[in-house]
Task: inverse folding
DNA sequence: ACAGTGTACGAAATCGGTTACATATTGTTT
DNA sequence: AAACAATATGTAACCGATTTCGTACACTGT
């Protein structure tokens, strides 16, 4: 089909061998200034770009990474993906993008593809950090950075302080005077959902507050799950005065249902999220949340992987903790339960 | 570093030549049933996956596409990216992801990288459909599908009916009785912004309504632009009774500022968006918008590109129009200007 | 018995780069 | 003047697959 111009074409045209052209392009070995100039001119004239594929085959480095996220439509991940791609471009790397849909089987599929395309490394926001996944990663044998995957694993990992996010929001609710605090959680069985639940439980326990069975439900991490949880809570005989949601999407879905059903937020009920996504601020009332700095995640993940790729770090797996910060907005306030009961 | 298992390893282990293994894997040429079984077993035992890189070099097909979007954080594009990636995976293709940040220079950079990595095709949501870009695409010489790029171009393209989206929202506002309708537009100089502006202008003209200079401003396609426009409009001596925004992000930013400044939406002022993103529905008031079906975009774009890649279509550039539909929600209502003036 | 056809498999070239090794010229040191 | 290092370039093998061409055998029909 399309015949590309090769290094040998350039060599012939410049009257040198392909070796010399290669040396010129990679700036290694000696090449005379005049020769270099001749090559440069020919390269420009022909708009020559060396084939990354051929390079990869020989050097055994594809300069391409696999980026696997559970849900690119989640603003946290789309923002992170954007930043990762920017950082990588600067380093001369590209990213092959995968959306696993938070599904274990698809995660395995993506890993298989990642291997066959010869990815030099994997940036993996895995939800199902099952043993099989870890085994598969080890078998593939390229550097891996796990993102938001709290389980102990033999790879570098980047995540917020375990359980800190919902701990912060729950404690905030407690400090406001709430006692009946419910939790609307993410996909059961995933490490990150577990961590968020624990944050809630820890804060409750620390304050000596009881956790009611029917105040703790887990669905998923998207707004649809939030709507379902909202429907559930609003139908309870005894509603909580505050709900700690596993992330902002859940909180937004929840908010919508509650407002739809005539509840006032935060007067009747307070809501918190996690991630501090843009839309949480755009809504009314704006969402109290926890900053999960996707840029920081991207930076650390890329840095860690690059160090592994360059071999400038070869030690034990590292854990990078991204600091978080509570952002109080309009969706939380002191409880007014007494009046309602009267 | 990591020595991969090659087709020759498999061949040796199975007691055949690499040719036969290749024939077995690609299901072309004859291979004895028993031999096939032996090979299958060895392949499984060694967990062998042929190197896509070596395949690409020889066959001159990378089975990898470049996907370039202006802003992956825009829910329309992140949703589209998700769906595109899913469709491609099924076809045995991968996508290298680029976020151009709606910047011309970066678009050029991305195209250069796309060429050197040997992308078989390009899915390109270009904002700056400048001549240079088109020339560069033609020079690269691989199939291209342009997305949301309205200018006439020598490639297949996928987009909504030109100017239809804002035409629908503006007409909706007019039918509600609004006469003082402003427009908050997207990045000036881009084809899509031009198209959105035209939709507004057409509807206004059709209804015989005058367009005031100070009611027409263009900033960008993100929520920050919406906030700026909102600040501008809310400071006007004579405020419009409705604002037609170029997309939902702009509308959401606008909404936030207006509510912040004490305006009631839709009582004091009506707001419309375009794209029907999830968050537009989650906010209050929920946003009147126009459905821009990202799944349909993804489907048509992938289909068109695949046909080009397979050579099953080789004719003139095609234009795929995705139908749209107005979704009326709480952010629009009849104007109540008379009372306010009194 | 022989040509023709379908089946089964291998040797070797090839894709477009990189690189180990060899060669040649020039400059510098002893 | 001989020895050595630095500079400048080329030859050819190689990365891991695919593919052309060729060989060999087993049928089948005449």
Result:
């Amino acid at each position: 089909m399309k015949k590309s111009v090769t290094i040998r074409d350039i060599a012939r045209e410049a009257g040198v061998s392909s070796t010399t052209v290669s040396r010129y392009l990679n700036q290694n070995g000696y090449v005379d200034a005049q020769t270099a100039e001749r090559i440069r001119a020919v390269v420009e004239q022909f708009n020559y770009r060396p084939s990354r594929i051929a390079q990869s085959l020989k050097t055994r480095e594809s300069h391409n990474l696999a980026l696997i996220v559970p849900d690119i439509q989640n603003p946290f991940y789309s923002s992170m993906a954007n930043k990762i791609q920017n950082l990588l471009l600067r380093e001369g790397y590209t990213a092959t993008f995968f959306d696993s849909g938070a599904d274990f089987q698809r995660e395995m599929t993506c890993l298989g593809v990642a291997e066959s395309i010869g990815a030099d490394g994997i940036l993996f926001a895995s939800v199902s950090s099952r043993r099989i996944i870890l085994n598969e990663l080890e078998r593939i044998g390229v550097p891996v950075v796990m993102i938001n995957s709290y389980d102990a694993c033999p790879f570098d990992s980047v995540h917020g302080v375990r359980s800190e996010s919902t701990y912060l929001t729950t404690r905030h609710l407690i400090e406001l005077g709430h006692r009946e605090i419910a939790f609307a959680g993410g996909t059961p069985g995933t490490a990150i959902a577990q961590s968020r639940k624990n944050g809630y439980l820890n804060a409750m326990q620390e304050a000596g507050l009881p956790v009611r069975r029917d105040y703790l439900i887990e669905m998923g991490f998207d707004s649809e799950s939030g709507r379902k949880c909202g429907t559930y809570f609003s139908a309870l005989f005894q509603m909580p005065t505050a709900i700690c949601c596993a992330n902002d999407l859940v909180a937004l879905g929840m908010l919508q249902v509650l407002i739809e059903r005539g509840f006032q937020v935060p007067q009747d009920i307070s809501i918190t999220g996690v991630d501090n996504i843009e839309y949480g601020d755009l809504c009314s009332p704006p969402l109290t949340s926890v900053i999960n700095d996707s840029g920081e995640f991207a930076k650390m993940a890329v840095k860690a992987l690059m160090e592994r790729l360059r071999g400038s770090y070869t030690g034990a797996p590292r854990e990078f903790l991204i600091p978080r910060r509570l952002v109080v907005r309009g969706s939380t306030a002191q409880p007014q339960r007494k009046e309602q009961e009267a």
Summary: Chain B has three domains: 7-50, 62-159+293-321, 164-292+327-341. The mean pLDDT of chain B is 93. The radius of gyration of chain B is 26 Å.
